[in-house]
Design goal:
It is built from 4 helices and no strands. The chain has about 120 residues and is mainly α.
Amino acid sequence: MKKRTVFLILIDLIFAACFNIVFFLNLKDPVAKTWISYGFINFAFVMSVISPLLIGKSKSPYLFTVVNTSISLIYFILNVIIALCSIFIKVMSVKFLLTLYIILTAVYLITFILLLVIGEKDK
């Protein structure tokens, strides 16, 4: 494994550790909305970390890595924004929040998989 890859993995682990520590230190009154948001944020983070690894052999590896990683980061940022809104806006129901996350995740996964198919190198 290259040094660059090891350093990127370490940076990702530091970010994940800091996020989880801050989350659990500030968790006062956990409700279902909090745990739903926490799960989707962690899923989005994992997808943004592994998205460069899923590119494989493509027509233009650099381009598809940048595009897929950017889409994963946008998905992560949207998850964080929705989580913050659900925490601060108390009137948002659990069903609405879960529906919003499921639709956002479906759109993200469809886009991500389509880009993987489009970028696949013909053999």
